[in-house]
Amino acid sequence: MQSRNLVLATAAFAITFWAWNLIGPLSGSYSKLLHLSPTQTSMLVAIPVLVGSLGRIPVGVLADKFGGRLMFAVICFATIVPVLFVGWSSSYGSLLFWGFVLGIGGTSFAVGVPFVNAWYEPARRGFATGVFGAGMGGTALSAFFTPRLVEALGRSATHVLMAVALAAMGVIMLVASKNAPSWQPSTAPALPRMREAMKIKATWQCAFLYAVAFGGFVAFSTYLPTLLQNVYAFAQTEAGMRTAGFSIAAVVARPLGGILSDRVGPVRVLLTSFAGTVLMAIVLSFNPPLEVAAGVSFVAMAFFLGLGTGGVFALVAKVVEPSRVGTVTGLVGAAGGLGGYFPPLVMGAVYTATGAYTIGYLLLALTAGAALLYTARAFRS
Length: 381
Prior knowledge:
By secondary structure, the chain is an all-alpha fold. It has a single domain, classed as Growth Hormone, Chain: A, CATH 1.20.1250.20. Helix content is 82%, strand content 0%. It is built from 17 helices and no strands. The chain has helices at 2-20, 27-34, 38-54, 56-66, 68-88, 92-102, 109-117, 125-133, 138-153, 155-176, 190-199, 201-232, 236-264, 266-285, 292-319, 325-354, 358-378. The longest helix has 32 residues, at 201-232. The radius of gyration is 19 Å and the shape is globular.
């Protein structure tokens, strides 16, 4: 029963994350079709991340109250509407609006963490959240398959197919999944619980660390197709294939980060993650050549960021009592999403101003360096 619900939650997470990332892999075609500037393109790519991040706060609270089984289904069904309208939109304003609403799909993370945590004993929650977190591979599925499906079927038909998949996943969660026997719905009012969660020091500590680790992953997975087309002149499908490789590396690393956190502690995992991110950001700032140097650098970056995302929620599971995990997860997840919202905007502005991404990479190195020093200092014991 544990394994089945973990698999179902991971599958639902992957499908909703695929939907959440429908715009990024097609950014090149939108830019050409609508004659967008780099800044406009980066805004279009980043806009779903905003709701996907901030929406995790109320969704985390609702998960504590109604349970993961129902909330997964609700998010799947609710995401169908923006998926369809993004596929039917033909203007920049319409794409921005429905892209904003598309962020609903990104809130599923705040449902899954408390859902799978409740099924596993504390000693295995790093493993459980790590495996569940592999569902962020939905971004890899989107990067690889969405451009190819659009070429084969057309944009509208591709989005209809995605809507059908979401509907099917929602029904499967209602029929086949189950809340853990130990789970009890929270009856406390939402706002006081959020205030209580915000008083916990670990909430803010983990929020900062997750903003760097998961924010870095989201920023790269959504903006990388645009970056690869600008810097290396890849076609849209080629850029999507390489972005899928980036996402897969992070997906593999995330459960590994959770498993290692159970064995050696999440702090050591996070130190490794942030140190590696600093190193790779510096390497990428030199614009390494194709194919091996650049490819290895991006994949290594994804691997280190993935380790960090697994480590952060292993840390949450250790320092936050189970009854508050959903609310804290919503706040931490929101921080992670916001961490992924701003970098594409910064990268777009940097590229517009300088014609290169060097400054953006160096800013990432500084941010990850700050997270490295903070982790070493705040969790010395």
